[in-house]
Each structure stands twice: as C-alpha cells, then as structure tokens.
Design brief:
The chain is α/β, with parallel strands linked by helices. Helix content is 36%, strand content 21%. Strands 3, 4, 5, 6, 7, 8, 9 and 10 form an 8-stranded mixed sheet that branches. It is globular and about 50 Å long. The relative contact order is 0.12. The structure holds zinc ion (ZN).
C-alpha cells in the first residue's frame, strides 16, 4: 500500500479535498489528486519506478540491529521489513533518470515513510554515508528523496549521531564539487530535516510537503504564540528561503535531468 485508504478498493478519498477518486485515475496521475494536486505519500519502490529508467540497488545487505534491546523494536523491524519489502527506511543505488537522453549516471537514496516513519537510525545514516562515498568515488551527482519523522528513538543516541555522520559525508562531496540535490517529500521533519537535507546544494520540495524540525504545537507552546496555518509547508518554506523551489511530481525526472545534464556539460 502506498497510503492509507478508508474506501473500497476501486475508490480513494483525497486526504485534502475529500474528493472520491477512481483508483485507476489516481494511478495514472502518479498518486496526485486529479482535483487539488494533493501529493499522496508513495513508497520507495514506486518512487524508483516513476523517476528512473534504470536502477541498481547498492548496500542492500545492511540490516538494522536492536542495540538497546528496546521493548519490541526487533519485532517491529521485522513487521516493517515484511510490510515494505525493505531492510530499513532507505534504498540506495545508482541509475539513470527517466527521459534523460544522455543517460547520465546518478547516485541515489530514497527514503520510505512506511518503514518506521522514515526514521533515521544507524542503517539510514550508514547508507547515506556509503552512497555519498560512492558518488565521490564515481564522480556522479547524488540525489536523495527525503521522507522522515525524525531520528529513530529506539536506537537512542546512536540515531542522533547519524546527523553528524551524514553531514560529514555530504561535506566531502561539497569539497570535491560533486552536487547533491535533495527532494523533500511529505513529511520531512526532525533530525533528517535538520541534518543532511538542509545542506544540499539544491533543495526542492514536492507540492504541499511538511518540512520542519519540531512540531507546530510544540513550538507554539514554547514561544507562546499562534503560528500561521500554512506554517512548515513547502509553500511557506519557499516564501522564507528555506528551499529553492517547489516541484510537481510529474516534472521531477525532467527537472533533475536538466540539473544533471548541466553538471556533466560544465564538467567536460
Ligand atoms: Zn484532492
């Protein structure tokens, strides 16, 4: 399943405008509401299918560990692995973007919110570090689709350490002039929003994505002020310069191809 639905198999209710949409129409529209452009949460496998012409997975053999013997963490990991067909909340690899006539190679990381809320623990951190090293060694741009509820609390301090680890890995790309493009998808919050996402060379966001560190209610309680209703949306973030642009899901491969092609053009 790409998202939750309260309706029968053939009809899906848009979470934003509440329109009932025929499932086939929604599929043909890449899970974007045909009425209001609401972007449904999609899984990593589907993201690969709609973004890349070819994709080869790397670092699949890395599995998460229950370092702290945290309650039923092992059980939940197993459940999510079965549910999502993933080992943890990210797939890494390399491939060519859909429609890129030059078939330039890009290194890729795609997070999946369906696996433990896309939380970043030791495996997500390690795989981002490894795919950054791969991008560096192979001189290919790095593209990450972020989607996360924040740090993986069941891994305690180890999950927080991934913030520094991913930033260090991306910094090496900066130093060696390898571009890193991050596409924010709904939702990208907590330790992920506050680490590698924020230091990307180009930060794009899907329409309507939630972007933030702490939740709106927590901030309101702390600063004792009411926040605007569109606070922490992609549109709000663009207005205040936190991101570079907002993209429609249909246009993502095309926009990324343009960036990647200009990178290779100026490298020659
Ligand atoms: Zn809608």
């Amino acid at each position: 399943m790409f998202f939750k639905t309260q309706n029968s198999n053939n009809w899906i209710k848009c979470e934003k405008c509440k329109t009932i949409i025929f499932k086939q129409d929604l599929e043909e529209n890449l899970y974007v509401c045909t009425k209001c452009n609401y972007h449904f949460v999609i899984n990593a496998h589907y993201r690969i299918k709609i973004t890349f012409d070819s994709f080869y997975e790397l670092f699949k053999e890395i599995y998460p560990k229950d370092f702290l013997n945290f309650d039923d963490y092992s059980k939940k990991l197993k459940e999510d692995q079965e549910k999502t067909n993933l080992t943890d909340a990210i797939i890494t690899g390399y491939g060519c973007l859909k429609g890129d006539i030059n078939k330039y190679k890009v290194s890729v990381g795609i997070m999946d919110f369906n696996f433990r809320g896309g939380s970043m623990g030791s495996v997500v951190g390690e795989k981002i570090a490894l795919i950054s090293e791969y991008a560096l060694k192979n001189d290919t741009p790095l593209i990450i689709f972020s989607s996360s509820g924040g740090a993986r609390m069941q891994e305690g301090i180890i999950s927080l350490m991934q913030m520094a680890k991913t930033i260090s890995a991306i910094k090496l790309l900066n130093k060696n002039r390898i571009p890193f493009i991050n596409i924010i998808t709904h939702p990208t919050t907590g330790g992920v929003a506050a680490s590698f996402v924020g230091i990307a060379d180009i930060i794009l966001s899907e329409i309507g994505a939630l972007i933030g560190f702490a939740g709106q209610r927590v901030i309101e309680q702390t600063i004792k002020q009411k926040l605007p209703p569109d606070f922490q949306t992609a549109e709000f973030s663009l207005k205040y310069g936190l991101i570079d642009n907002i993209v429609h899901r249909h246009n993502i491969p095309n926009i990324l191809s343009k960036f990647i092609n200009s990178f290779y053009f100026y490298k020659k």
